[in-house]
Amino acid sequence: MYIVYTGSSMLEIDAHEGDLSRRQAMYELRGMSFREYLEFEGVVKYDKYTLEDLLAHHIEIAIDINSKTNVLACFNKYLREGYYPFYKSVRHGLASRLLATVNQVIENDYPQIDEVTLSTIRKTKKMLMVLAGCVPQLPNMSQLYHELETDRNHGLKMLWALEMCGRRFS
C-alpha cells in the first residue's frame, strides 16, 4: 500500500532533524518545467536538450517546437498557473490556495521552528512581496533591510526562513 501525503509541518521535521527514514520515503516534489507542463497538459512531448545542443542548434529547435504548438499562448498559461502540479485540482482557486499556503507556512510553521515575533512575521511577508517584485533582478539588500526596518542579521534570518519554507513548499 502506498500513502501519499503532504504538509508544511515538514519544516518542523527539518528543523529538529527528525529521522523518518525507516518509516517513510521522503520525496520533495519540485515545480514543473515548461516542458513538463506541456507534457502534463497533453499538448506535446519534447525531448530534453542539452545546453550544448541549444547553443549549437537553437534555430532548428525553435522552428521544430513552434511547428508543434503555439508556444507563447501555452507559456503565458504556464506562468499563470502551471508551475505547481496541483493546479489542475484547483484551477480557478489557485491564487487563493497559494496565498493560503504561504500564509500557513509563514504564520504557523515558521514560529514553530524559530522564536519569531508578530513583527518578524509581518516583515517576512513584506520581504517575500518585495523579492517577488524584483524578479529577475537581484535586490539591493541594504536597501531591502532599510525598507523592512531591520538589520542585516535579522534580514538574513528571514531569508533563511523563506528558503526553508520554499524547500518545503516546492
Short description:
The protein is mainly α.
Sum up the structure in keywords:
170 residues; mainly alpha; 0% strand; 62% helix; 8 helices
Rg, Cα atoms, Å: 20 Å
Proportion in helices: 55-70%
Largest sheet: none
N-to-C terminal Cα separation, in Å?
25 Å
Low-confidence stretches: none
* Helix vs. strand class: mainly alpha
Overall residue-averaged pLDDT value: 80
Structure, explained:
- The chain is mainly alpha-helical.
- The protein has 8 helices and no strands.
- The radius of gyration is 20 Å and the shape is elongated.
- The model has no long low-confidence stretch (mean pLDDT 80).
Spell out the blueprint of helices and strands.
Elements: H1 10-15, H2 34-40, H3 51-68, H4 71-82, H5 94-113, H6 118-134, H7 141-147, H8 152-169
Helix pairs in contact: 5-8, 6-8
